[in-house]
Amino acid sequence: MARRGGPERLRVSGGTWPDLTPAPTSTPTPTLTLTLIPASAPTPTLIPARGSPAAEGSPGPGGAGRGAACGTGECRRGVRVPEGGAGVPGRDELVDRCERLQLQSAAIARHVDEVLPAKDQADQAVLNAASAARELVIQRLLFVGKACENEEQRLLERVHAEEERAHQSILTQQVHWTEALQKLGALRTYLVDMITNLDDQGLLRAEREIFERTEVAEGILEPQESLKLNFNQTCVQSPLLHRLWASAVLCCLTGSQEIHIDERTLSPHLSLSEDKRTLTFSPKKAKVDLDCPERFDHWPNALATAAFHSGLCAWKVGVEQSCAYKLGVCYSSVPRKGSANEGRLGFNTASWVFSRYDREFRFLHAGQPQPVELIKAPAQIGVLVDFAGGEVLFFDPDSCTILFSHRETFTEPVYPVFAVAHQSISLVQ
Protein backbone atom coordinates (compact mmCIF):
# COMPACT_ATOMS: atom_id res chain seq x y z
CA MET A 1 0.00 0.00 0.00
CA ALA A 2 1.52 3.34 -1.03
CA ARG A 3 1.94 6.04 1.59
CA ARG A 4 0.99 9.59 0.64
CA GLY A 5 1.45 12.79 2.57
CA GLY A 6 3.48 11.33 5.39
CA PRO A 7 3.41 8.25 7.48
CA GLU A 8 0.01 6.62 7.91
CA ARG A 9 -1.33 3.63 9.75
CA LEU A 10 -4.48 1.63 9.72
CA ARG A 11 -7.39 2.82 11.89
CA VAL A 12 -9.86 0.27 13.09
CA SER A 13 -13.35 1.39 14.01
CA GLY A 14 -13.25 1.68 17.75
CA GLY A 15 -9.42 1.38 18.14
CA THR A 16 -5.94 0.73 16.72
CA TRP A 17 -5.45 -2.79 15.51
CA PRO A 18 -1.93 -3.90 16.68
CA ASP A 19 -1.51 -6.83 14.32
CA LEU A 20 -2.97 -7.70 10.92
CA THR A 21 -2.00 -11.36 11.07
CA PRO A 22 -5.04 -13.48 10.24
CA ALA A 23 -6.53 -15.43 13.07
CA PRO A 24 -6.70 -19.23 13.02
CA THR A 25 -9.38 -20.63 10.75
CA SER A 26 -11.26 -22.11 13.70
CA THR A 27 -11.81 -18.66 15.22
CA PRO A 28 -14.44 -16.31 13.69
CA THR A 29 -12.88 -13.30 12.06
CA PRO A 30 -14.19 -10.02 13.51
CA THR A 31 -15.84 -7.50 11.24
CA LEU A 32 -13.54 -4.47 10.95
CA THR A 33 -13.82 -1.07 9.35
CA LEU A 34 -10.43 0.22 8.15
CA THR A 35 -9.68 3.89 7.73
CA LEU A 36 -6.35 5.60 6.88
CA ILE A 37 -5.44 8.27 9.40
CA PRO A 38 -2.26 10.25 9.95
CA ALA A 39 0.33 8.68 12.21
CA SER A 40 0.24 11.67 14.52
CA ALA A 41 -3.47 11.07 15.36
CA PRO A 42 -4.21 9.65 18.81
CA THR A 43 -4.80 5.95 19.02
CA PRO A 44 -8.50 5.19 19.53
CA THR A 45 -9.86 2.37 21.62
CA LEU A 46 -10.84 -0.81 19.80
CA ILE A 47 -14.48 -1.90 20.17
CA PRO A 48 -14.94 -5.26 18.39
CA ALA A 49 -18.03 -5.93 16.39
CA ARG A 50 -20.97 -7.58 18.13
CA GLY A 51 -20.50 -11.39 18.11
CA SER A 52 -16.74 -11.27 17.62
CA PRO A 53 -14.47 -13.26 19.93
CA ALA A 54 -13.14 -10.12 21.55
CA ALA A 55 -16.66 -8.92 22.25
CA GLU A 56 -17.54 -12.22 23.84
CA GLY A 57 -14.36 -12.48 25.90
CA SER A 58 -12.62 -15.08 23.70
CA PRO A 59 -8.97 -14.68 22.73
CA GLY A 60 -8.59 -12.79 19.50
CA PRO A 61 -5.72 -11.84 17.32
CA GLY A 62 -3.28 -9.74 19.23
CA GLY A 63 -5.33 -9.76 22.46
CA ALA A 64 -6.40 -11.83 25.42
CA GLY A 65 -9.81 -12.93 26.58
CA ARG A 66 -12.27 -11.21 28.96
CA GLY A 67 -10.53 -9.81 31.99
CA ALA A 68 -7.12 -9.52 30.34
CA ALA A 69 -5.22 -6.28 30.47
CA CYS A 70 -5.62 -4.02 27.44
CA GLY A 71 -2.94 -1.36 27.36
CA THR A 72 -3.29 0.90 30.42
CA GLY A 73 -6.91 -0.01 31.22
CA GLU A 74 -9.11 -3.05 31.64
CA CYS A 75 -11.16 -4.48 28.76
CA ARG A 76 -14.77 -5.33 29.74
CA ARG A 77 -17.13 -6.61 27.04
CA GLY A 78 -15.03 -4.89 24.37
CA VAL A 79 -14.93 -1.53 26.20
CA ARG A 80 -11.62 -0.13 27.27
CA VAL A 81 -12.07 1.27 30.75
CA PRO A 82 -9.73 4.11 31.64
CA GLU A 83 -7.55 3.83 34.69
CA GLY A 84 -9.81 6.31 36.49
CA GLY A 85 -12.61 3.68 36.51
CA ALA A 86 -15.24 5.60 34.42
CA GLY A 87 -17.01 3.08 32.16
CA VAL A 88 -18.01 3.66 28.54
CA PRO A 89 -21.28 2.04 27.25
CA GLY A 90 -20.74 -1.24 25.48
CA ARG A 91 -21.95 -2.16 22.04
CA ASP A 92 -24.84 -4.26 23.38
CA GLU A 93 -26.04 -1.40 25.48
CA LEU A 94 -25.81 1.00 22.58
CA VAL A 95 -27.76 -1.41 20.41
CA ASP A 96 -30.40 -1.67 23.15
CA ARG A 97 -30.58 2.08 23.27
CA CYS A 98 -31.00 2.23 19.53
CA GLU A 99 -33.82 -0.29 19.72
CA ARG A 100 -35.54 1.70 22.48
CA LEU A 101 -35.18 4.89 20.47
CA GLN A 102 -36.65 3.12 17.46
CA LEU A 103 -39.63 1.91 19.53
CA GLN A 104 -40.11 5.38 20.99
CA SER A 105 -39.98 6.89 17.52
CA ALA A 106 -42.51 4.36 16.27
CA ALA A 107 -44.86 5.18 19.15
CA ILE A 108 -44.58 8.90 18.46
CA ALA A 109 -45.11 8.33 14.74
CA ARG A 110 -48.20 6.23 15.47
CA HIS A 111 -49.51 8.97 17.81
CA VAL A 112 -48.95 11.59 15.13
CA ASP A 113 -50.47 9.45 12.35
CA GLU A 114 -53.41 7.90 14.20
CA VAL A 115 -54.23 9.56 17.52
CA LEU A 116 -53.78 13.22 16.68
CA PRO A 117 -55.97 13.13 13.55
CA ALA A 118 -58.73 11.55 15.64
CA LYS A 119 -58.21 14.24 18.26
CA ASP A 120 -58.35 16.85 15.56
CA GLN A 121 -61.71 15.48 14.49
CA ALA A 122 -62.90 15.43 18.10
CA ASP A 123 -61.55 18.94 18.59
CA GLN A 124 -63.45 20.05 15.53
CA ALA A 125 -66.58 18.47 16.97
CA VAL A 126 -65.98 20.39 20.21
CA LEU A 127 -65.51 23.59 18.25
CA ASN A 128 -68.71 22.94 16.32
CA ALA A 129 -70.65 22.21 19.52
CA ALA A 130 -69.24 25.30 21.21
CA SER A 131 -70.10 27.41 18.19
CA ALA A 132 -73.65 26.04 18.15
CA ALA A 133 -74.04 26.67 21.89
CA ARG A 134 -72.69 30.19 21.49
CA GLU A 135 -75.10 30.85 18.65
CA LEU A 136 -77.99 29.47 20.71
CA VAL A 137 -77.15 31.78 23.62
CA ILE A 138 -76.90 34.78 21.32
CA GLN A 139 -80.16 33.94 19.54
CA ARG A 140 -82.06 33.45 22.79
CA LEU A 141 -80.69 36.62 24.34
CA LEU A 142 -81.53 38.52 21.17
CA PHE A 143 -85.04 37.09 21.33
CA VAL A 144 -85.37 38.04 25.01
CA GLY A 145 -83.93 41.47 24.25
CA LYS A 146 -86.40 41.97 21.42
CA ALA A 147 -89.27 40.85 23.63
CA CYS A 148 -88.10 43.24 26.34
CA GLU A 149 -87.88 46.09 23.84
CA ASN A 150 -91.41 45.41 22.62
CA GLU A 151 -92.71 45.13 26.17
CA GLU A 152 -90.91 48.32 27.12
CA GLN A 153 -92.48 50.17 24.22
CA ARG A 154 -95.94 48.82 25.05
CA LEU A 155 -95.69 49.66 28.74
CA LEU A 156 -94.29 53.13 28.13
CA GLU A 157 -97.14 53.84 25.75
CA ARG A 158 -99.61 52.69 28.39
CA VAL A 159 -97.89 54.85 31.00
CA HIS A 160 -98.06 57.84 28.69
CA ALA A 161 -101.74 57.19 27.92
CA GLU A 162 -102.56 56.81 31.61
CA GLU A 163 -100.63 59.96 32.40
CA GLU A 164 -102.58 61.89 29.76
CA ARG A 165 -105.88 60.48 31.00
CA ALA A 166 -105.18 61.42 34.61
CA HIS A 167 -103.94 64.85 33.59
CA GLN A 168 -107.01 65.45 31.42
CA SER A 169 -109.27 64.31 34.25
CA ILE A 170 -107.65 66.79 36.58
CA LEU A 171 -108.05 69.59 34.03
CA THR A 172 -111.69 68.66 33.50
CA GLN A 173 -112.31 68.68 37.21
CA GLN A 174 -110.61 72.03 37.56
CA VAL A 175 -112.80 73.54 34.86
CA HIS A 176 -115.93 71.97 36.34
CA TRP A 177 -115.33 73.15 39.87
CA THR A 178 -114.18 76.55 38.72
CA GLU A 179 -117.49 76.99 36.91
CA ALA A 180 -119.32 75.72 39.97
CA LEU A 181 -117.54 78.26 42.14
CA GLN A 182 -118.47 81.01 39.73
CA LYS A 183 -122.13 79.94 39.75
CA LEU A 184 -122.21 79.72 43.51
CA GLY A 185 -120.51 83.07 43.82
CA ALA A 186 -122.95 84.69 41.42
CA LEU A 187 -125.91 83.12 43.25
CA ARG A 188 -124.65 84.30 46.61
CA THR A 189 -124.16 87.81 45.25
CA TYR A 190 -127.70 87.72 43.83
CA LEU A 191 -129.20 86.54 47.10
CA VAL A 192 -127.31 89.13 49.12
CA ASP A 193 -128.49 91.80 46.72
CA MET A 194 -132.11 90.59 46.96
CA ILE A 195 -132.00 90.50 50.73
CA THR A 196 -130.45 93.95 50.91
CA ASN A 197 -132.59 95.77 48.37
CA LEU A 198 -136.03 94.11 48.60
CA ASP A 199 -138.62 94.20 51.31
CA ASP A 200 -140.74 91.24 52.25
CA GLN A 201 -143.29 91.84 49.50
CA GLY A 202 -140.50 92.15 46.94
CA LEU A 203 -139.03 88.90 48.15
CA LEU A 204 -142.41 87.23 47.75
CA ARG A 205 -142.69 88.52 44.20
CA ALA A 206 -139.15 87.28 43.44
CA GLU A 207 -139.75 83.94 45.15
CA ARG A 208 -140.01 81.96 41.91
CA GLU A 209 -136.81 83.45 40.49
CA ILE A 210 -134.99 82.87 43.77
CA PHE A 211 -136.20 79.25 43.84
CA GLU A 212 -134.99 78.57 40.31
CA ARG A 213 -131.56 80.00 41.01
CA THR A 214 -131.12 78.15 44.31
CA GLU A 215 -132.26 74.93 42.64
CA VAL A 216 -129.31 75.25 40.26
CA ALA A 217 -127.02 75.63 43.26
CA GLU A 218 -128.46 72.55 44.91
CA GLY A 219 -127.58 70.57 41.77
CA ILE A 220 -123.91 71.32 42.34
CA LEU A 221 -122.72 68.39 44.47
CA GLU A 222 -119.88 68.54 46.92
CA PRO A 223 -116.55 67.35 45.48
CA GLN A 224 -115.45 63.87 46.43
CA GLU A 225 -112.19 61.98 46.06
CA SER A 226 -112.11 60.16 42.75
CA LEU A 227 -109.72 57.42 41.68
CA LYS A 228 -109.98 58.77 38.17
CA LEU A 229 -107.82 61.67 39.25
CA ASN A 230 -105.01 59.32 40.31
CA PHE A 231 -102.44 57.55 38.18
CA ASN A 232 -103.46 53.92 37.81
CA GLN A 233 -100.43 51.77 38.68
CA THR A 234 -101.98 48.69 37.12
CA CYS A 235 -101.12 50.06 33.69
CA VAL A 236 -97.52 48.89 34.19
CA GLN A 237 -98.43 45.37 35.25
CA SER A 238 -96.75 42.88 32.96
CA PRO A 239 -96.34 39.15 33.62
CA LEU A 240 -93.26 39.07 31.39
CA LEU A 241 -91.57 42.01 33.13
CA HIS A 242 -92.60 40.74 36.55
CA ARG A 243 -91.07 37.31 35.99
CA LEU A 244 -87.89 38.59 34.39
CA TRP A 245 -87.44 41.11 37.17
CA ALA A 246 -88.07 38.58 39.94
CA SER A 247 -85.71 36.06 38.33
CA ALA A 248 -82.99 38.68 37.95
CA VAL A 249 -83.35 39.83 41.56
CA LEU A 250 -83.27 36.32 42.98
CA CYS A 251 -80.26 35.41 40.82
CA CYS A 252 -78.28 38.58 41.47
CA LEU A 253 -79.09 39.28 45.11
CA THR A 254 -77.35 37.01 47.59
CA GLY A 255 -79.39 37.80 50.65
CA SER A 256 -79.69 34.26 51.98
CA GLN A 257 -76.10 34.11 53.19
CA GLU A 258 -76.75 37.28 55.21
CA ILE A 259 -79.87 35.92 56.88
CA HIS A 260 -79.71 33.86 60.05
CA ILE A 261 -82.52 32.81 62.32
CA ASP A 262 -82.59 34.42 65.75
CA GLU A 263 -82.39 31.67 68.34
CA ARG A 264 -83.98 33.91 70.96
CA THR A 265 -87.25 33.98 68.99
CA LEU A 266 -87.58 30.20 68.61
CA SER A 267 -90.80 28.55 69.63
CA PRO A 268 -90.29 25.67 72.08
CA HIS A 269 -91.54 23.40 69.28
CA LEU A 270 -88.60 24.34 67.04
CA SER A 271 -84.90 23.50 67.04
CA LEU A 272 -82.21 25.38 65.13
CA SER A 273 -79.20 23.92 63.33
CA GLU A 274 -75.67 25.03 64.18
CA ASP A 275 -75.42 27.22 61.09
CA LYS A 276 -78.70 28.91 62.13
CA ARG A 277 -80.35 28.15 58.79
CA THR A 278 -82.52 25.07 59.37
CA LEU A 279 -85.66 24.94 61.51
CA THR A 280 -86.93 21.53 62.60
CA PHE A 281 -90.33 20.96 64.17
CA SER A 282 -90.91 18.76 67.20
CA PRO A 283 -94.34 18.00 68.70
CA LYS A 284 -92.74 18.04 72.15
CA LYS A 285 -91.86 21.36 73.69
CA ALA A 286 -88.24 21.98 74.55
CA LYS A 287 -87.28 23.38 77.92
CA VAL A 288 -86.56 27.01 77.14
CA ASP A 289 -87.06 30.36 78.80
CA LEU A 290 -90.64 31.19 77.83
CA ASP A 291 -90.42 34.55 79.58
CA CYS A 292 -87.91 35.83 77.03
CA PRO A 293 -89.71 38.79 75.37
CA GLU A 294 -88.42 37.89 71.89
CA ARG A 295 -89.63 34.27 72.03
CA PHE A 296 -92.82 32.88 70.49
CA ASP A 297 -94.11 30.83 73.39
CA HIS A 298 -96.85 28.85 71.61
CA TRP A 299 -97.03 28.97 67.81
CA PRO A 300 -94.06 27.39 65.96
CA ASN A 301 -92.62 30.67 64.66
CA ALA A 302 -89.17 32.25 64.42
CA LEU A 303 -87.68 35.52 63.15
CA ALA A 304 -84.42 36.36 61.44
CA THR A 305 -81.75 38.26 63.31
CA ALA A 306 -81.77 41.37 61.09
CA ALA A 307 -84.48 43.52 59.56
CA PHE A 308 -84.71 45.21 56.16
CA HIS A 309 -85.91 48.78 55.75
CA SER A 310 -85.06 49.92 52.21
CA GLY A 311 -84.18 48.84 48.69
CA LEU A 312 -84.54 45.27 47.48
CA CYS A 313 -84.02 42.18 49.60
CA ALA A 314 -84.50 38.55 48.66
CA TRP A 315 -83.87 35.11 50.08
CA LYS A 316 -84.72 31.50 49.27
CA VAL A 317 -86.10 28.81 51.54
CA GLY A 318 -85.98 25.08 50.88
CA VAL A 319 -89.40 23.64 51.73
CA GLU A 320 -89.49 20.28 49.93
CA GLN A 321 -89.31 18.28 53.19
CA SER A 322 -92.26 20.00 54.86
CA CYS A 323 -96.00 19.89 54.23
CA ALA A 324 -96.86 22.57 56.80
CA TYR A 325 -94.99 25.86 56.83
CA LYS A 326 -95.26 29.63 56.55
CA LEU A 327 -92.69 32.13 55.36
CA GLY A 328 -92.72 35.82 54.63
CA VAL A 329 -92.12 39.09 56.49
CA CYS A 330 -93.41 40.79 59.61
CA TYR A 331 -92.94 43.83 61.80
CA SER A 332 -91.16 43.48 65.12
CA SER A 333 -94.51 44.24 66.78
CA VAL A 334 -95.97 40.89 65.72
CA PRO A 335 -97.64 39.21 68.73
CA ARG A 336 -95.43 36.54 70.29
CA LYS A 337 -97.24 35.38 73.41
CA GLY A 338 -100.31 33.24 73.91
CA SER A 339 -102.30 30.77 71.86
CA ALA A 340 -104.79 33.24 70.40
CA ASN A 341 -105.14 33.55 66.64
CA GLU A 342 -103.43 36.93 66.73
CA GLY A 343 -100.18 35.12 67.46
CA ARG A 344 -100.46 33.11 64.26
CA LEU A 345 -98.54 34.44 61.30
CA GLY A 346 -100.87 35.98 58.74
CA PHE A 347 -103.70 36.40 61.24
CA ASN A 348 -102.61 39.89 62.30
CA THR A 349 -101.85 43.18 60.57
CA ALA A 350 -98.10 42.89 61.24
CA SER A 351 -97.30 39.82 59.11
CA TRP A 352 -97.48 38.81 55.43
CA VAL A 353 -96.85 35.12 54.74
CA PHE A 354 -97.15 32.41 52.13
CA SER A 355 -98.64 29.32 53.76
CA ARG A 356 -98.86 25.63 53.00
CA TYR A 357 -100.89 23.07 54.88
CA ASP A 358 -100.92 19.67 53.21
CA ARG A 359 -102.09 20.43 49.66
CA GLU A 360 -103.56 23.83 50.42
CA PHE A 361 -101.55 26.95 49.54
CA ARG A 362 -102.59 30.43 50.66
CA PHE A 363 -101.39 33.97 51.15
CA LEU A 364 -102.27 35.29 54.58
CA HIS A 365 -102.48 38.82 55.96
CA ALA A 366 -104.71 40.31 58.64
CA GLY A 367 -106.64 37.05 58.90
CA GLN A 368 -107.79 37.23 55.28
CA PRO A 369 -106.58 34.16 53.35
CA GLN A 370 -106.24 34.27 49.59
CA PRO A 371 -106.04 30.83 47.95
CA VAL A 372 -103.13 30.09 45.62
CA GLU A 373 -103.71 27.39 43.02
CA LEU A 374 -100.58 25.34 42.31
CA ILE A 375 -100.22 22.22 40.21
CA LYS A 376 -96.98 21.17 41.87
CA ALA A 377 -95.60 21.93 45.30
CA PRO A 378 -92.41 24.01 44.97
CA ALA A 379 -89.13 22.65 46.34
CA GLN A 380 -87.89 26.17 47.03
CA ILE A 381 -89.66 29.47 47.53
CA GLY A 382 -88.03 32.83 46.99
CA VAL A 383 -89.22 35.82 48.99
CA LEU A 384 -88.64 39.24 47.46
CA VAL A 385 -89.39 42.55 49.17
CA ASP A 386 -89.32 45.79 47.19
CA PHE A 387 -89.63 48.75 49.54
CA ALA A 388 -89.61 51.37 46.77
CA GLY A 389 -92.25 49.52 44.76
CA GLY A 390 -94.24 48.58 47.86
CA GLU A 391 -94.44 44.88 47.08
CA VAL A 392 -93.79 41.50 48.63
CA LEU A 393 -93.50 38.66 46.16
CA PHE A 394 -93.28 34.88 46.50
CA PHE A 395 -91.49 33.11 43.67
CA ASP A 396 -90.67 29.58 42.52
CA PRO A 397 -87.01 29.73 41.36
CA ASP A 398 -87.16 26.37 39.58
CA SER A 399 -90.06 27.21 37.27
CA CYS A 400 -89.59 31.01 37.30
CA THR A 401 -93.23 31.28 38.41
CA ILE A 402 -94.62 34.05 40.59
CA LEU A 403 -96.65 32.23 43.23
CA PHE A 404 -98.22 35.36 44.69
CA SER A 405 -97.63 39.10 44.69
CA HIS A 406 -99.00 41.54 47.25
CA ARG A 407 -98.67 45.32 47.21
CA GLU A 408 -98.03 46.95 50.55
CA THR A 409 -96.47 50.21 51.68
CA PHE A 410 -94.31 49.15 54.59
CA THR A 411 -94.09 51.73 57.36
CA GLU A 412 -91.59 49.84 59.52
CA PRO A 413 -88.55 47.63 58.97
CA VAL A 414 -89.58 44.05 58.20
CA TYR A 415 -88.04 40.82 59.47
CA PRO A 416 -87.94 37.55 57.55
CA VAL A 417 -90.30 35.26 59.44
CA PHE A 418 -90.71 31.48 59.39
CA ALA A 419 -93.05 28.84 60.79
CA VAL A 420 -92.93 25.07 60.40
CA ALA A 421 -95.23 22.38 61.79
CA HIS A 422 -93.90 19.38 59.86
CA GLN A 423 -90.29 18.24 59.56
CA SER A 424 -87.96 21.09 58.54
CA ILE A 425 -87.30 24.07 56.28
CA SER A 426 -83.92 25.65 55.49
CA LEU A 427 -82.53 28.92 54.24
CA VAL A 428 -80.79 28.28 50.92
CA GLN A 429 -77.31 29.61 50.19
Automatic annotation (TrEMBL):
Family annotation (CDD domains): SPRY_BSPRY
PROSITE patterns in the record: B302_SPRY
Record-annotated B30.2/SPRY domain positions: 239-429
Gly residues: compositionally biased ranges: 59-70
InterPro entries (UniProt xref): B30.2/SPRY, B30.2/SPRY_sf, Butyrophylin_SPRY, ConA-like_dom_sf, E3_ligase_FN3/SPRY, PRY, SPRY_dom
Gene3D superfamilies, sorted: 2.60.120.920
Region of interest called Disordered, as start-end residue ranges on this chain: 1-32, 48-71
Biased composition (Low complexity): 20-32, 48-58
Feature: compositional bias, Basic and acidic residues: 1-11
Protein's UniProt name: B box and SPRY domain-containing protein
A Pfam entry, by short name: SPRY
Native source species: Lepidothrix coronata
